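Lab notebook, bench 4. Continuing the backlog of folding jobs that were queued last week. Each job is logged with the same field layout so the records can be merged later without manual cleanup. Today's entry covers FMN reductase, a 188-residue chain. Filled in by technician R.K.

JOB TYPE: sequence-to-structure
TARGET: FMN reductase
LENGTH: 188
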Amino acid sequence: MTVKVKAIIGSTSSTSFNLKLVEFMKKRYAGQLDITPVFINELEMFSVDLESNVPANVKEFKDNVKDSDAVLFAVPEYNFSIPGALKNAIDWLSRGGDFTIKDKPAFIIGSSMGVLGSVRAQIHLREILSNPSLSPALLPGNEVYIGSVHEKINEAGELIDEGTVAFLDQVVQNFLAFYNKNKAVSLV
Ligand SMILES: Cc1cc2nc3c(=O)[nH]c(=O)nc-3n(C[C@H](O)[C@H](O)[C@H](O)COP(=O)(O)O)c2cc1C
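JOB STATUS: finished
OUTPUT FIELD FOLLOWS
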């Protein structure tokens, strides 16, 4: 059985390296993970004023994320944190009283063109996700920081750095073991 994963693309760039990584993972782990990218580009800026009449594309986004066994966050770093568009999407996920991702198995990958590979963004993301209205069952450890990503992905969108690919393979295996332990919790 493949695990149905919705991958929230934290970048709004049409040439996003983080999207390319997700597309690479979709192909490489096809037998184990059924990955679908979820885009956040068109989401309205969150406001409590909109909560009485939530925009249709926000509802669609939340339903799409909910319709999954697990969630993957693909995170670039903007100014030592997560991009504003991703924070906006997460703010929507946290509201409405439906606890869209609570207890849902989740894991994080991230890359940047700098050497630290989005480490600061991911530290912030883990903190944000620990809010009780979000609180997915987040894979501990397994911190995927892909630095200098522009040198590790070729024209065809393939991850060509062997060490990074081997590490990603291991993280996916660790996630699957974690998923199998946690899926019972996420189904209640
Ligand atoms: C507004 C902005 C801020 C950025 N800030 C950082 C940063 O703080 N640290 C970093 O390593 N890279 C930073 N970068 C470079 C990004 O890592 C790089 O653009 C990366 O490709 C973004 O991911 P994406 O290709 O998936 O969109 C920044 C880029 C932009 C556009």
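OBSERVATION: The mean pLDDT is 96.
SIGNED: R.K.
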